Amino acid sequence: MDWFWHVLVICLVVIPVTIMWLAIAFELFTRRDLKWWQRLAWILFILIFPLIGSLIYLGYTWATAGRRAPGRASALPRFGNQASNVPDAEGDLASLDRLRRNGVLTTDEFEAGKRRVLEGNTPDGGTSATQTADESLQATATDTEPKHGAQ
Hints:
Elements: H1 2-30, H2 36-48, H3 50-63, H4 89-101, H5 107-119, H6 133-143
Helix pairs in contact: 1-2, 1-3, 2-3, 4-5, 5-6
């Protein structure tokens, strides 16, 4: 019956702690909001004291999560201007260029879309931050194509 307790300890303690330790080590290598010497100190700390160091690191990051310096990059990925109502002109121009290079847009459609992005206008004449260049130009490109069964 000793084997049962060994398997239980391995499954419920050793494997989760190892996964937590590896995830923290990976996060420390990918974080850019810490200086190099801070990352090095944390890595050495969790290498020397794996369980205690990992738990202290988790507590420290949880306690300081809302107090990151505003000028420094966050460790979280950025997904565009979701909280802002300002359109992302640079992203829209990059999307237009990608669509032109992939053959979805002609040169004239690209120039018209670029003009709309730079002026801040949508195809219907209004301004909207929610409609991206991809959506408006995809709709323009597909409207000019013949429908199935239509000649």
